């Protein structure tokens, strides 16, 4: 046990140091020659001669290699100097601190919205406890609220509230009224997720015996309610970090949509301009904000649980089975509609400019035409392939990575924690800044956040397979370790991993679309959902259908993602904890042996 | 009777086992020593948690001891640093507590047995070995076409005996082979195990809770929890 703990700590230390080094050396790592981009940005009229480029390289401090670049940057940071921008040549510090301030304010507003929404979702569930009614879990409202990714919700709010109804300004950052829409776009999905987790936890807590005992003992309602909520919150507080990381990532998209001069937009601008020192400073501040928020979550946990407990001490409340049939029907309907779009649109040409610019929807053009006069139905249908095929590739690669890393065990702990703490959009911004925006880069960013959960599952499956009695006994039959691994352990893990990966597919597709929407993924004229939505948003006042078509496809995928996540909850909690599925798969004898072992020890 | 005079085929010297590492380590097997001659049967008895199954696992080479060593036929079989030598695995075979552990669930009994015998002996045609072992264990050969889930517990345990005996071991380890069976079947299986090992001159280490089975063995080794 202690051996593996040491491995875990070493892994974390090494990955931490590697992360710091890489962060410091980002300008050097850039694949596109930074000297050339600086030259372009600053002296547009100058010819990029080798002499001029070399001079700029020395000026930027890139002549010393990655380690020197990194150490130089970090020593500057420790002295409070965040460096100079490659593009403007000015000090980075003031601009990025301002951006952080704006983002913090926006996050506070969003947190208020999120808490209000979470409270609204939990209240009915909590009161059902007192009336001793059967619990139903979070229900459709929570699902609907979590279904929309931030960039989609932000676009929808912009189109409906700011453009159509003209109730609030569509962009800017000049007072409370400009903060309402972005705070809603960020807060609604976060609040929906938080409320859903809490409501499910409340439903599970109600099953615990002490609630019945307290009710029978005639404890006052307020006391029971407080107890239930506290217990449920303690179970959910660990997920708080995930919700907050979602908000951090979502902020990039929301700030971009509403043109808010926050940290997310700052990062995006730096990535697009290849201004790597600015990107470094932004990433550093975002990481600091994440650490701060993590510390706050830790305090909340301490307050709720009365101190840090070793993992597993507080059992998670029993998982409530949601209405599986409803979830299945939802997935079927959403998938059916997507297939219909695919079937109608695939035969059409997504690139041909044959229609009137921004032609409204008609029988011949069901989704209308885009700003170049291309058929939107064809583009959305081909975008399905453009979004889903890379997603399938990402999932398959993630499974391979997961199997390889699961074998390494604790060694993979450090990278996994870093990957878990990275919002996909942030990974996309950094990769786009280094490699330039491309489908491959976006896929890499999404892969980076997809492998950790699959690795955890793979490790559990491998443990499970190794613990099966017949696998334990195979060495007696003279079968080598390698063959046991290849013929008996691996086949038992690939199937469940593939199923798990396919369930993650819609989520992966949405992350990819978010990057496309921000211009960090697929490039025009490629049809890709996120990119289509991003293109359409420029014409939203004149031709709202340009955003409607890709939005419909994205909403259908989101609905699939959330409904499917509900299904997965019911299934993988069983297999992750082990023995329960082992009895299911191995049948009676396995259970016999387990019972026998229990009496033995 | 010659068996009693011959040299021990299995020698266990001062073997202990520890579960876990560092602060959480706890001893699961007190120092144990034992000599078994060919054809002898030793009943290993003791209360739950005494380390009977651990001793069986170490003898089988499924785990290494923390101290001490195990010799088979005078050569090193298993020490704290090394498991059984490759190519010699045939020498010690076992019958598990749960017969399904001896067989891959998705394979027929025959396939599991053939594969094991082929691997352990290095012979290509193993039909005669399997037929002879099946005869000794009174297993209907037709049952070999079925999967472990399609036969009764007693039949599966007889098949597990066939799998263990067919490669031609010199030591057989049976870890409570009858605990999952009803009383009559258990008696029949124990009797088969004892008579086969005696007939073939195999040293038998039989972990059991049943005093009547222990009575039929040559000797009884009682181990107590550390």
Tag the structure with descriptive keywords.
heterodimer, A: 601 residues, mainly alpha, MetI-like fold, 3 domains, 74% helix, globular, disordered C terminus, B: 226 residues, alpha/beta, Rossmann fold, 5-stranded parallel beta sheet, 4-stranded antiparallel beta sheet, 7 helices, 24% strand
What are the SSEs and their pairings?
The complex is a heterodimer of chains A (601) and B (226).
Chain A: H1 2-24, H2 26-29, H3 34-42, H4 50-60, H5 66-78, H6 93-130, H7 139-147, H8 150-164, H9 176-206, H10 209-216, H11 221-257, H12 263-272, H13 276-305, H14 324-345, H15 376-408, H16 413-420, H17 424-435, H18 439-467, H19 469-473, H20 481-503, H21 505-517, H22 529-537, H23 545-577, H24 579-586, H25 588-600
Chain B: H1 2-5, E1 10-19, E2 26-36, E3 41-45, H2 52-60, E4 67-72, E5 75-78, E6 92-95, H3 109-121, H4 127-137, H5 153-165, E7 171-175, H6 183-200, E8 203-207, H7 211-215, E9 219-222
Parallel strand pairs in B: 3-8, 3-9, 6-7, 7-8
Antiparallel strand pairs in B: 1-2, 1-4, 4-5
Helix pairs in contact in B: 3-5, 4-5, 5-6
Membrane topology (chain A): Multi-pass membrane protein
Domain ABC transmembrane type-1 (chain A): 100-297, 380-565
Biased composition (Low complexity) (chain A): 571-581
Give an overview of the whole structure:
- The complex is a heterodimer of chains A (601) and B (226).
- Chain A is mostly helical and 601 residues long.
- Chain A has three domains: 2-78, no CATH class; 93-305, MetI-like (MetI-like fold, Orthogonal Bundle), CATH 1.10.3720; 324-355 and 372-600, MetI-like (MetI-like fold).
- Chain A has 25 helices and no strands.
- In chain A, helix 9 crosses helix 11 and helix 18 (439-467) runs antiparallel to helix 21 (505-517).
- Residues 308-313 and 568-601 of chain A have low confidence and may be disordered.
- In chain B, helix 6 links the parallel strand 7 and strand 8.
- In chain B, the strands form two sheets. Chain B has a five-stranded parallel β-sheet, sandwiched between helices.
- The relative contact order of chain B is 0.20.
- The radius of gyration of chain B is 17 Å and the shape is globular.
- The mean pLDDT of chain B is 88.
- Chain B starts with a helix and ends with a strand.
- Chain B has helices at 2-5, 52-60, 109-121, 127-137, 153-165, 183-200, 211-215, and strands at residues 10-19, 26-36, 41-45, 67-72, 75-78, 92-95, 171-175, 203-207, 219-222.
- In chain B, helix 3 runs parallel beside helix 5 (153-165), helix 4 crosses helix 5 (153-165) and helix 5 (153-165) packs parallel to helix 6.
- Chain B has 226 residues and is α/β, with parallel strands linked by helices.
- The A-B interface holds A 1-3, 469-470, 472-480, 488, 586-587, 589-590, 592-593, 596, 599-601 and B 20-24, 48-49, 53, 60-62, 86, 89-90, 93-94, 96-105, 112, 115-116, 119-120, 148-149, 163, 167, 176, 179-180.
- Chain B: Pfam families: ABC_tran (PF00005).
- Chain B: Residues 10-225 form the ABC transporter domain.
- Chain B: InterPro entries: AAA+_ATPase, ABC_transp_ATP-bind, ABC_transporter-like_ATP-bd, ABC_transporter-like_CS, P-loop_NTPase.
- Chain B: GO terms for molecular function: ATP binding.
């Amino acid at each position: 046990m202690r051996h593996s703990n040491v491995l875990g700590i070493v892994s974390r230390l090494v990955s931490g140091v590697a992360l710091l080094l890489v962060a410091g050396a980002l300008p050097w790592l850039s694949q596109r020659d930074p000297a050339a981009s600086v030259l372009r940005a600053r002296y547009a009229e100058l010819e990029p001669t080798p002499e001029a480029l070399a001079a700029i390289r020395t000026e930027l401090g890139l002549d010393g290699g990655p380690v020197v670049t990194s150490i130089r940057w970090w020593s500057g940071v420790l002295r409070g100097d965040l460096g100079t921008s490659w593009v403007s040549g000015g000090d980075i510090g003031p601009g990025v601190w301002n951006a952080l301030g704006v983002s913090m304010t926006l996050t506070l507003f969003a947190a208020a919205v999120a808490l209000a929404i979470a409270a609204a979702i939990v209240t009915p569930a909590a009161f059902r406890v007192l009336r001793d009614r059967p619990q139903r879990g979070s229900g459709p409202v929570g699902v609907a609220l979590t279904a929309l990714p931030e960039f989609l919700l932000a676009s929808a709010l912009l189109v409906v509230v700011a453009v159509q109804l003209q109730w609030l300004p569509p962009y800017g950052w000049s007072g409370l009224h400009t903060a309402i829409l972005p705070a809603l776009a960020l807060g609604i999905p976060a609040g929906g997720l938080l409320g859903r987790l809490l409501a499910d936890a409340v439903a599970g807590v109600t099953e615990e015996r002490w609630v019945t005992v307290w009710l029978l003992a005639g404890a006052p309602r307020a006391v029971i309610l407080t107890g239930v909520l506290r217990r449920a919150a303690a179970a959910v507080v660990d997920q708080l970090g995930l919700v907050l990381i979602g908000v951090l990532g979502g902020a990039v998209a929301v700030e971009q949509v509403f043109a808010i001069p926050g940290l997310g937009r700052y990062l995006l601008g730096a990535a697009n301009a290849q201004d790597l020192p600015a990107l470094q400073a932004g990433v550093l501040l975002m990481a600091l904000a994440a650490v701060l928020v993590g510390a706050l979550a830790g305090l909340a946990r301490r307050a709720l649980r009365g101190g840090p407990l070793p993992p597993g001490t507080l059992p998670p409340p029993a998982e409530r089975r949601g209405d599986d049939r409803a979830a299945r029907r939802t997935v079927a309907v959403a998938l059916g509609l997507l297939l219909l779009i695919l079937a109608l649109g695939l035969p059409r040409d997504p690139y041909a400019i044959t229609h009137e610019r921004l032609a409204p929807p008609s029988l011949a053009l069901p989704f209308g035409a885009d700003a170049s006069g291309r058929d939107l139905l064809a583009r959305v249908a081909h975008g399905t392939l453009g979004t889903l095929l890379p997603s399938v590739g990402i999932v398959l690669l993630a499974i391979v990575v997961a199997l390889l890393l699961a074998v390494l065990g604790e060694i993979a702990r450090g990278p996994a924690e870093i990957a878990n703490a990275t919002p996909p959009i942030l990974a996309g911004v950094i990769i786009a800044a280094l490699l330039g925006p491309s489908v491959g880069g976006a896929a890499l960013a999404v892969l980076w956040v997809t492998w950790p959960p699959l690795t955890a599952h793979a490790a559990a499956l491998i443990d499970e397979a190794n613990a099966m009695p017949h696998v334990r006994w195979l060495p007696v039959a003279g079968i080598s370790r390698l063959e046991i691994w290849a013929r008996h352990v691996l086949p038992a893990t690939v199937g469940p991993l593939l199923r798990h990966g396919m369930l993650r597919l819609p989520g992966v597709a949405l992350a990819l679309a978010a990057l496309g929407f921000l211009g960090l993924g697929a490039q025009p004229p490629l049809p890709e959902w996120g990119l289509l939505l991003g293109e359409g948003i420029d014409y939203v006042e004149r031709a709202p259908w340009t955003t409607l078509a890709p939005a419909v496809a994205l909403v259908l995928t989101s609905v699939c993602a959330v409904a499917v996540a509900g299904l997965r909850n019911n299934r993988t909690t069983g297999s992750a904890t082990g023995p329960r599925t082992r009895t299911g798969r191995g049948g009676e004898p396995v259970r016999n042996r387990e019972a026998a072992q229990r009496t033995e020890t | 009777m010659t068996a009693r005079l011959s040299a021990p085929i299995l020698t266990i010297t001062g073997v202990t086992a520890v579960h876990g590492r560092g602060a959480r380590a706890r001893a699961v097997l007190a120092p144990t020593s034992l000599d078994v001659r060919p054809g002898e049967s030793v009943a290993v008895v003791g209360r739950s948690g005494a380390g009977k199954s651990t001793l069986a696992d170490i003898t089988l080479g499924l785990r290494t001891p923390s101290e001490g060593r195990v010799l088979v036929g005078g050569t090193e079989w298993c020490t704290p640093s090394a498991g059984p030598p490759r190519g010699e695995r045939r020498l010690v075979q076992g019958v598990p507590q749960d017969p399904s552990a001896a067989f891959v669930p998705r394979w027929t009994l025959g396939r599991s047995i053939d594969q094991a015998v082929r691997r352990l002996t290095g012979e290509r045609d193993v039909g005669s070995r399997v037929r002879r072992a099946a005869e000794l264990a009174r297993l209907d050969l037709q049952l070999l076409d079925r999967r472990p889930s399609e036969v009764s517990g007693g039949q599966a345990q007889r098949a597990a005996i066939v799998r263990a005996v067919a490669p031609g071991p010199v030591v057989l380890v049976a870890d409570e082979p009858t605990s999952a069976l009803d009383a009559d079947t258990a008696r029949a299986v124990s009797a088969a195990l004892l008579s086969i090992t005696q007939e073939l001159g195999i040293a038998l280490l039989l972990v059991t809770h049943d005093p009547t089975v222990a009575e039929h063995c040559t000797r009884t080794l009682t181990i107590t929890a550390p």
